[in-house]
Design brief:
It contains eight helices and seven strands; from the N terminus they run ββαααααααββββαβ. By secondary structure, it is an alpha+beta fold. The chain has a four-stranded antiparallel β-sheet. The chain has a three-stranded antiparallel β-sheet with strand order 3-4-5, with helices on one face. A hairpin with a 5-residue loop joins strand 3 (174-178) and strand 4. Helix 4 (81-91) packs parallel to helix 6 (118-138) and helix 5 (96-110) crosses helix 7 (142-163).
């Protein structure tokens, strides 16, 4: 989960909600420059974080605060190996294209940890084999798949910038990442709170995206069970961002 501190406690955004926000952003991309198999790509983007099951995890830090996903430990990573395998397997039920993009996402996130656990190495080897097989079966070039995954990664990164409150102050630009065309894109929040991206990659000149977040007014928790219960009853607020072409 994504954890932001507030003056009165915490703002919690579930990873599946973050993935849905990424899909909202993807759906706004210029149609003429959209990646192949756009709707299947949107499905991959919206489901790429399905392995995150916050309600089943260790949710609390040693200090009693909600644990942000960036604070995952080596122990958490080992426990998560089974979930990685499950995500790869379940993606296949949505079709080979969705499975291919999610498999590439698994590879990107976990290849730096290759050699840490034999079980992880086995899963990573399977992903590379599957990716090659699915590209061949789908009759699509590696360059096209790489561009589609760059699009997925771009939307994921932009969603995280918004969810993690990373928009700079004073109308300064922040790099998102390179898009499917290899072009660098930057984001900026104006003084009127409207958001713009340069160069503008979207179909419409103005649109709004949103996400739901839980509000917690308790700062410390004795256990994951206590935090999980608090999240179930926490008030939900809607966060919105309006993008405009400058």
């Amino acid at each position: 989960m994504i954890v932001n501190s507030t003056p009165n406690g915490w703002e919690i955004i579930y990873h599946r909600a973050h993935a849905l926000l990424a899909a909202q952003l993807a759906g706004q991309w210029q149609r003429k420059d959209a990646p192949p198999r756009l709707y299947e790509t949107l499905a991959a983007i919206s489901h790429h974080d399905d392995l995150e099951k916050e309600w089943e995890e260790d949710l609390v830090t040693e200090a009693g605060a909600p644990k942000d996903f960036t604070l995952a430990t080596k122990k958490d990573a080992k426990i998560g190996i089974g979930k990685v395998a499950e995500l790869a397997k379940n993606a296949r039920y949505r079709g080979r294209w969705v499975a291919l993009l999610i498999s590439m996402h698994i590879s990107r996130l976990n290849e730096p940890s290759r050699g840490t656990f034999p079980e992880l190495d086995k899963i990573l080897d399977e992903q590379l084999q599957n990716q090659q097989q699915w590209r061949k079966e789908l009759g699509i070039k590696k360059e096209e798949v790489d561009a589609a995954y760059a699009f997925m990664q771009w939307c994921d990164r932009l969603s995280l910038i918004l969810c993690q409150q990373e928009l700079p102050e004073d109308e300064r630009f922040l790099e998102i990442s390179k898009g499917p065309d290899g072009q660098r894109y930057d984001i900026m929040q104006r003084s009127d709170r409207l958001v713009t991206v340069k160069p503008w990659p979207f179909q419409e000149k103005q649109f709004t995206v949103n996400i739901e977040a839980c509000e917690l007014f308790q700062t410390e928790f004795k256990s994951s069970a206590e935090l999980s219960q608090a999240l179930q009853s926490a008030p939900v607020k809607v966060l919105e961002w309006t993008f405009v072409k400058s």
